[in-house]
Amino acid sequence: QVQLVESGGGLVQAGGSLRLSCAASGSIFNINVMGWYRQAPGKQRELVATITRGGILNYSDSVKGRFTISRDNAKNTLYLQMNSLKPEDTAVYYCNAYYFINRRYDYWGQGTQVTVSS
């Protein structure tokens, strides 16, 4: 089992910045990919950014150039630095970790609210 705990959400004005953190614990040695997803009211959950065990980064087009995903292996913590925030970035942000053994096994955090005011 893997436990993920997010922190760092809040209310910010458009153009501002926030940094989300995700502390991972448990059987994290199996994890292949960690990432951030978000879900706005009335919309499906969507990928924001991922980072593989080897350090390969992937971003959605909507956040590319504004958000940066990173991790601190010593602290078992994943980060999402969000700059130039827009009202459309408002959503609940979820930390995700998964691994493959015959199939994908996903773990999710409880989510943290990010609200960007115009």
Which keywords apply here?
118 residues, mainly beta, seven-stranded mixed sheet, four-stranded antiparallel sheet
Account of the 3D structure:
With 118 residues, this protein is an all-beta fold. It contains no helices and 11 strands. The protein has strands at 2-7, 10-13, 18-26, 33-39, 46-52, 57-59, 67-72, 77-82, 91-101, 103-108, 112-117. Strands 2, 4, 5, 6, 9, 10 and 11 form a 7-stranded mixed β-sheet that branches. The protein has a 4-stranded antiparallel β-sheet with strand order 1-3-8-7, with no helix packed on it. A hairpin with a 6-residue loop joins β4 and β5 (46-52). The radius of gyration is 14 Å and the shape is globular. The termini are far apart. The model has no long low-confidence stretch (mean pLDDT 96).
Which helices and strands appear, and what pairs or packs with what?
Layout: E1 2-7, E2 10-13, E3 18-26, E4 33-39, E5 46-52, E6 57-59, E7 67-72, E8 77-82, E9 91-101, E10 103-108, E11 112-117
Parallel strand pairs: 2-11
Antiparallel strand pairs: 1-3, 3-8, 4-5, 4-9, 5-6, 7-8, 9-10, 9-11
The overall average pLDDT, rounded, is 96
Share of helix, binned: under 10%
Overall shape: globular
With helices defined by DSSP (H or I, 4 residues minimum), what is the helix count? 0
The structural class is mainly beta
Calculate Rg over CA atoms.
14 Å
Low-confidence stretches: none
